[in-house]
Design brief:
about 85% helix, globular, about 475 residues, mainly alpha
Length: about 475
């Protein structure tokens, strides 16, 4: 695979991530109004609990499997055997987790048993999730087609099924079933890649141990929101607080998907480079990737803060005003999450240092849970947001130390300096545009964005930021070809 393949995959993945941002712009307002913060909270809380079981069932098999297949992809027999060993491991772990999950529902389900029950379908569907196999070959087309189709069908079903709050349960059933069939769709093309493997050649013991070391790094970007949602529901006893948190974290999740799209594309390539010992190429690609990531992350942080007051209340509808302050806090999680996600997927995991990464995230998870126990009690969902920002920052700092052979804080400061200055100017412009508007106003928020982007681009060009100047050169080069 050459650099053109990386660019193509990055473009495909970025288009999908943009789609993932645009689609909720259509669905979130409808969902928030039909379900209310209480209904959104029920879905958020029950899904967060089920997701804990799903993550335990997967146990890092996806990230570990991607790395193993990427390393062996030149030997068809070897990667075929590895695929079936990892998939059987996933099947056994999922079967155990389904039994435990059903026991959990019976004992702790209470009035939410029906909601927990339908999510069993999603948990079982985890067995058939094999996107990792295709990403190991840097074949993103099929995965993106599947993901796009599932998201579109989910959106259509939302408008067809949900007419009021009573539509929540049937909608959750429909989404779970669509997700299951989406996973099965990826199995159709497997025969082009695999060769027959004897059962006597299958050995799964080693994979359970190795995949365990990938478990925590893989869930790092979602671990805190899952813990937060479960603890918010358990400590505050308020589904409304879960609803506020769900919507605020949803905005951040959309933005983070765009920011981290390159990491998904680069992970398999970096595994191959580490396997071949090409350290200088790894360093260069990591530098370029982080520069690109920060060029996107920093202005997006400012955009979120700048438009939250005027945009969110109008966008979500009545009853969601507390989401604004949550978004102000959550915006600051983007920088450390973007940094830690890149270092995990492009450095630590490909280098086979997932165990180190696991220890760091476990420490951070303990910090997060401890902070949650205190802060949620006093500040409810706001306390959980603050705890997540602190915990993610801890991970980013320690990851930087672990990857010091490839990247330094001086590099990060060099990448970020001009971008931060331009972002400050951007925020000032957005605040000035928003001053005349007292109440929530979508048009005003759009004007803020336009003004902010214009100021940011102007300042970046004036300061001749490396990333922007490279983009300008590429555009000029393409224009000359026309």
């Amino acid at each position: 695979m050459n650099d053109k393949t990386i660019k193509r995959n990055y473009l495909l993945n970025t288009i999908y991530q943009v789609f993932s941002i645009v689609l909720p712009v259509v669905t979130m307002p409808y969902e928030s109004r039909k379900f209310s913060a209480y209904g959104v909270g029920i879905r958020s809380y029950t899904t967060s609990v089920m997701t804990i079981f799903m993550l335990l069932a997967a146990l890092g098999c996806s990230a570990y499997g991607e790395r193993e297949i990427a390393r062996k992809r030149k030997n068809r027999r070897e990667y075929s055997r590895a695929f079936w060993e990892i998939e059987i491991t996933n099947l056994l772990l999922t079967a155990i987790m389904v039994v435990i999950y059903i026991l959990y529902i019976a004992i702790f389900g209470g009035s939410l048993k029906a909601y927990y029950g339908v999510l069993t379908i999603a948990l079982i569907g985890n067995v058939f999730q094999i996107s990792w196999f295709y990403t190991a070959f840097e074949e993103f087309d099929l995965v993106i087609i599947k993901n796009t189709a599932v998201r579109l069908i989910d959106a259509v079903l939302l408008f067809v099924i949900v007419k009021n709050s009573k539509g929540l349960l049937p909608y959750m059933v429909a989404v779970a079933v669509v997700g299951l069939f989406g996973n099965l769709f990826l199995w159709i093309s497997l025969k082009k890649y695999l060769v027959r493997v004897k059962i006597s050649d299958i050995y799964i013991g080693v994979h359970i141990r190795k995949s365990l070391s990938y478990f925590i790094p893989v869930v790092a970007t979602t671990l805190y929101t899952i813990i937060d949602k479960a603890m918010i529901g358990g400590i505050s006893k308020s589904k409304y607080e879960n609803g506020y948190y769900e919507q605020a974290s949803g905005f951040i999740k959309m933005i983070l998907a765009l920011v981290t799209s390159m990491n998904t594309v680069m992970s398999a390539r970096m595994s191959l480079l580490f396997e071949e010992g090409k350290l200088e190429e790894i360093k260069k690609k990591l530098h370029d990737s982080l520069n690109t990531t920060l060029s996107i992350t920093i202005p997006l942080m400012v955009m979120i803060i700048g438009v939250a007051r005027l945009f969110i209340p109008k966008f979500l509808g009545p009853g969601y005003l507390p989401v604004v302050n949550l978004v102000y806090v959550f915006a600051f999680i983007l920088f450390p999450m973007a940094l830690s996600n890149a270092l995990s997927l492009q450095c630590l995991n490909p280098a086979g240092r997932a165990r180190e990464s696991s220890r760091i995230v476990i420490m951070s998870a303990v910090i997060n849970a401890a902070l949650n126990a205190i802060l949620i009690y006093f500040f409810k969902s706001m306390g959980a947001a603050i705890a997540s920002v602190i915990s993610e920052s801890f991970i980013a700092v320690v990851y930087m130390k672990k990857c010091s052979d490839f990247i330094s804080w001086k590099n990060i400061i060099d990448f970020s300096g001009k971008k931060i200055k331009a972002a400050i100017g951007m925020l000032a412009a957005m605040i000035l545009v928003g001053i005349p508007f007292r109440s929530s106003n979508i048009i005003a928020a759009i004007l803020q964005l336009i003004a902010g982007i214009m100021v940011y681009v102007f300042l970046m060009l004036k300061m001749k930021d490396e990333f922007v100047m490279n983009m300008v050169k590429k555009v000029k080069k393409q224009l000359k070809k026309l």
